[in-house]
Write a structure and sequence with these properties.
256 residues; metal-binding; FAD/NAD-bd_sf; Thi4_prok; Thi4_fam; 9 helices; FAD/NAD(P)-binding domain; globular
Amino acid sequence: MIDEIKISRAIIDTYSKKLIDHLSVDVAIAGAGPSGMVCAYYLAKKGKKVAIFERKLSVGGGMWGGGIMFNEIVVQAQAKKILDEFGIRSRLWENGYYLADSIEATATLCAQALKAGAAIFNCMSAEDVMIRKNRVCGLVLNWTAVEMARLHVDPITMRASYVVDGTGHDAQIVHIVENKSGIRLKTKTGRAAGEGSMWAEIAEATTVKNTGEVAPGLYVCGMCANAAFGGPRMGPIFGGMLLSGKKAAEELLKKL
């Protein structure tokens, strides 16, 4: 016999325990795009407690769609080692350009991050941050459905030794910090520099270069790094995203 109430209890009990267990972590990542999932993978692989909070139902950011919904992505030679480590198949196109199936790439990044020990909570938005002694030390969370419906429902708070903004072009956590906390960002102007028009060659380099701490306790990776420190967008080439996620993890591992 299948008991619908037992099914409901199993889901509610298990999810509640998982969420409670991740209200205090080493690293909280906002955004389950490719850079966020790569960052989580390398941190969890080293035994760090990591939680990703993704506002959408699905993970992967723009990687699912490849370019104009042609589900192929390009990765340059420098990042192919990450594809290989994750077990994502790729094939040489020409002159150091490698192609990968965007569906396989996204699904594999997610699966490997989870298998490494990271937790992913989808349909959850970070609507604010927790700051103590002028340092980012947690996220304020609510259901995305609450946000979309504009319901007056209070959020919950979780604590993290470090927070990573992996929210892509929007740089949502960075903007919350600069607009609400009074903290001066570690950019030239003290505020988010903003993202420029597409220039893949420059963007791939600056995405990795700009990855790092943008405010005390807050790191940026992926397209959020260019939105914070300034740099163009890159389009459907994802090597910089993967390398950025790995760099963020490596820098955080030195601090933890």
